[in-house]
Amino acid sequence: MEATLDISVVVPLYNEEESLPELMAWIHRVMQAEGLNYEVIMVDDGSKDSSWKTIQHLQSQYPSLRGFSFRRNYGKSAALNVGFEACRGQVVVTMDADLQDSPDELPALYSKIKNEGFDLISGWKKKRYDPLSKTIPTKVFNWATRKLSGIHLHDFNCGLKAYRYEVVKSIEVYGEMHRYIPVLAKWAGFTNIAEQVVQHQARKYGTTKFGLERFINGFLDLLSITFVSRFSKKPMHFFGLLGLVMFTLGGFLALWLVSEKLVATYILDQRAPLVTQNALFYIGLLSMILGTQFFLAGFIAELVSRNAPDRNRYHIKDQTDV
C-alpha cells in the first residue's frame, strides 16, 4: 500500500470520551487552515467509558476520521501498531488523546519530515505540567535510554512524534515498545532522527494513566530491545563469548590450584591442604559450569535464529530495476 494522503494523525486512547470532540475539532481546524489532505485514526484501546460511541458519532461529522476498537485493553503499543498498519499519509504523526499534545504543532512536524528530509521527529516537552512522581522517573528513563541506544533525545516517551511513511511500515510496535520507537527506527536503518520542542498542556479531562509499574516494565523492555537489536542475528557472539570467558577463567583457577598442589607435594615435599578446601576451587568450578551453560545457550539460540522466518528480512532503502 502506498501513501495517498498528506498526513495521517494516529491517536491511541483509553477512557478519553470527554476530550475527543474537542481534539477532533482542533485537528480539523488546523488541517483546514494548512490545506492538508489528512486522516485521523483513533484506536480505542478497550475503553470502559463511552469513547467508542463518541468516535462513531464524530465520524458522521468528520469523514476523515477512521476508528478501531479493541475488545479489551491491550496497551498503547498495540494501538499504535494498528494505526501504523492502517495509515495512508506520507507523513504520520502520533499524539495522545488527552489534549496535553497540541494539534497546533502538526504543521511544523509535517514540514520537518516533508521538506527537511528527516525520518523521525520526536517531540520534546521541555516545560512539563506533570507531578514530580512522573517527571523524575521520566528523566531517569530518558537518561538510561540515551546511554544504551546512542540516540540523543531528551524525551523518548513523548506521544507527539512524526514519521515518514516508510518508517512506520518498517517497524513493529509491541509490548511496551512505544517508548522506544526511535530505537526501533534506528534498528531498521532510519538514522535521520531529531527532536523538536513542543508545547505541553495541563490535563483538562480525566486522570493520568501513568504508574510506577510502567517505568519498571519500560526499563526491562529497554534491556530487551537493546539486546535484540544487537544480537538477534548473532546470539552466539554474546552468549558464546561470555561462556568462553567464564570457562577460561574457571579452567585457569582449577589449573592453578592443581599446579600449586603438585608443586607443594612433589617438589617442595610439603603437606598441602586438599584442593576442595580452597574457596577458589568452587569459584572456578562454578565459572566452568556457567560458561558451559552460556555457550550451550548461545548454540541453541543460534539454531533458533537460523530457523526464524525473518532471518533474512532486511530493510531495503532503494533499488534499481533491470
Quick rundown:
By secondary structure, the chain is α/β, with parallel strands linked by helices. The protein is built from 10 helices and 7 strands. 48% of the residues lie in helices and 13% in strands.
Give structural notes.
- The chain is built from 10 helices and 7 strands.
- The chain is an alpha/beta fold and 322 residues long.
- Helix 5 (132-149) runs parallel beside helix 8 (212-231).
- The radius of gyration is 27 Å and the shape is elongated.
- The model has no long low-confidence stretch (mean pLDDT 83).
Strand and helix map with partners:
Elements: E1 5-13, H1 20-34, E2 38-44, H2 51-59, E3 65-69, H3 76-86, E4 89-94, H4 106-116, E5 120-124, H5 132-149, E6 161-164, H6 165-168, H7 181-187, E7 193-197, H8 212-231, H9 235-267, H10 279-306
Parallel strand pairs: 1-2, 1-4, 2-3, 5-7
Antiparallel strand pairs: 4-6, 5-6
Shape: elongated
Write down the Rg: 27 Å
Identify the CATH homologous superfamily of the largest domain: Spore Coat Polysaccharide Biosynthesis Protein SpsA, Chain A
Helix content: 40-55%
CATH uppermost class of the largest domain:
Alpha Beta
Spell the H/E element sequence. EHEHEHEHEHEHHEHHH
Strand order of the largest sheet: 3-2-1-4-6-5-7
Give the termini distance in whole angstroms.
23 Å
* Low-pLDDT stretches: none
What's the CATH architecture name of the largest domain? Alpha-Beta Complex
**Global mean pLDDT:** 83
CATH topology assignment of the largest domain: Spore Coat Polysaccharide Biosynthesis Protein SpsA, Chain A
Return the structural class: alpha/beta
Number of helices: 10
Find the count of extended strands (DSSP E, 2+ residues): 7
- Give the tally of structural domains: 2
* Major sheet size, sense and barrel closure: 7 strands, mixed
In terms of DSSP E residues, the strand content is 5-15%
